[in-house]
Specification:
Length: about 180
């Protein structure tokens, strides 16, 4: 990463704020030293203190990795945060429409490749008639299909919790369809 690129995201942030930014976007367990380097700070102790504070508040989880402490994402908290964000930023109808869009794409892939599921598409990768390019294209679609299935599940959970979550968030109940049941 160039110094210019580093400055763009760190500009105006304190050392602790940079550690928080890095730590809350982790995708796998990382050491204090790794976080310190990514945050562009000189103090190992500052990074450690901030990570411990984030762990205390459930933002990250300390894990033992070969006798060393690393900090991992709190996937459960992220998942619930994503559900809350979907509920707070979208109407029930918008969530339903997103599910329909995802299913439409999946249906198109099923038709295009004459398969019934993602697993069935994956099983075609060893077809001797496929070119390397065709296999790579199917791999790309498989990755997208997996993301779509995950997003569809997330959207489904948001719909299931929609009314309860909206009732717990003052000022967010004004949506015209927030009182409709899932079946409507």
């Amino acid at each position: 990463m160039s110094d210019r690129g580093l400055e763009s995201w760190t500009e105006g942030l304190t050392a602790r704020e940079r550690v928080r930014k890095i730590a809350t976007t982790l995708t796998r367990p990382r050491s204090v030293e790794w976080v310190r380097e990514e945050a562009g700070i000189s103090s190992w102790q500052t990074a450690k203190d901030e990570l411990e504070m984030l762990a205390e508040f459930g933002q990250v989880q300390p894990v033992d990795a070969d006798g060393n402490t690393k900090y991992a994402p709190n996937y459960q908290r992220r998942y619930f945060s994503e559900i809350a964000e979907l509920i707070n930023e979208h109407t029930r109808e918008e969530l339903r429409e997103q599910i329909a869009d995802i299913q439409e794409s999946i249906d198109e892939w099923c038709e295009e490749f004459d398969v019934e599921s993602r697993v069935a598409l994956e099983s075609t990768l060893t077809d001797p008639d496929l070119t390397g390019e065709a296999i790579r294209e199917r791999n790309r679609i498989l990755r997208q299909w997996e993301r779509y299935e995950d997003n569809k599940r997330l959207l489904g959970h948001a719909l299931e919790l929609y009314d309860d979550a909206r009732s717990l968030h003052p000022g967010r109940n004004e949506s015209s369809d927030s009182s409709l049941s899932v079946s409507q």
